[in-house]
Amino acid sequence: MRLTYLNTFVEVIKHQSISKAADELFLSQPAVTKQLKIIEEYYGVTLLLRHDHKTLPTREGKQLYCCAQNILTENNELLRSFKNELNDSTGHIDLIASNYPAHYILPDLIKERSQSYENITYSIKTTDSQDTYYHVRNGLFSFGFVGLKKEIPNIETLEISRASMVLVGSKQKYHFLLDQPEKIKDQNFILRAKGSGTLHEIKKRLEHLNMDRIKTFVECDSNEMVKKLILSGIGIGYFFENALKPSIDDHSLIILDEKKIERQFFYIYNTQKYKSISENSFHHYILNKYANQ
């Protein structure tokens, strides 16, 4: 059943006339009559009767009239919604990211994009890199942001940012380690929890320093908790230099190891996952922004 036929039927009921409906729709009367006949054959009932030179609905015709109006209204709203999304003016995007991208990359990305597409809405799930890969690989999210590069079928990666991590601690409590670096391994370490790309890179660095057996005091699910605990002075740990710059500059924190951990961050996406109009637009925005940098 074509929607145009339902629209013709509605116009005939409104005008109580086939000829007036034909004029309204820029159709010939025979064309309108043919469409009405097709509708009646489709439903298997009589929908219209002639009475006093008027075309009026039967009981079944009144039922179809109400349903047809709802169908046409919802169809028009759907068309308007799709048109708006095609124009990038509306839509919703679900994002998933590990901690550093969620706190230090996505806010700027969303702010920049919102200047042009202010009616796009977002939801952000913050987790670790391993979990982000799991969600994107299994099609639960179309794309995500991580701090770890993995080779997984149907998952493409694109580097979008870099950041340096430094080993830091409270100057007041840990200043002595500058002269006694061999005692670093005996201190309380604040680390990320298992599954984190940050933890993966820190472990590689500690193994290089022959400090694979350290005293892990606290394991945290988030980078922000690591940052707060380091600032509190209860332990030392690796954290992103750019995020700690104010505390390093005012000497409340000191860098305990001049060797930095260089981190890379990636945009990942599932090549087999269907993307909505707004998601596809965001996807190409990321590709265009970072593909040639």
From TrEMBL:
The protein's matches in InterPro entries, at most eight in alphabetical order, are given as: LysR_HTH_N (IPR000847), LysR_subst-bd (IPR005119), WH-like_DNA-bd_sf (IPR036388), WH_DNA-bd_sf (IPR036390)
Q: Which Gene3D superfamilies match?
A: 3.40.190.290, Winged helix-like DNA-binding domain superfamily/Winged helix DNA-binding domain (1.10.10.10)
Query: What's a Gene Ontology MF term here?
Result: transcription cis-regulatory region binding
The question of whether DNA-binding is a record keyword is answered with yes
The answer to whether the entry has keyword Secreted is no
Question: Keywords on this record?
Answer: DNA-binding, Transcription, Transcription regulation
Domain HTH lysR-type positions: 1-58
| Record-linked Pfam families | HTH_1, LysR_substrate
* Family membership: Belongs to the LysR transcriptional regulatory family.
Protein name, entry field = Transcriptional regulator LysR family
> Which organism is this entry from?
Acetobacterium woodii (strain ATCC 29683 / DSM 1030 / JCM 2381 / KCTC 1655 / WB1)
Lineage start: Bacteria, Bacillati, Bacillota, Clostridia, Eubacteriales
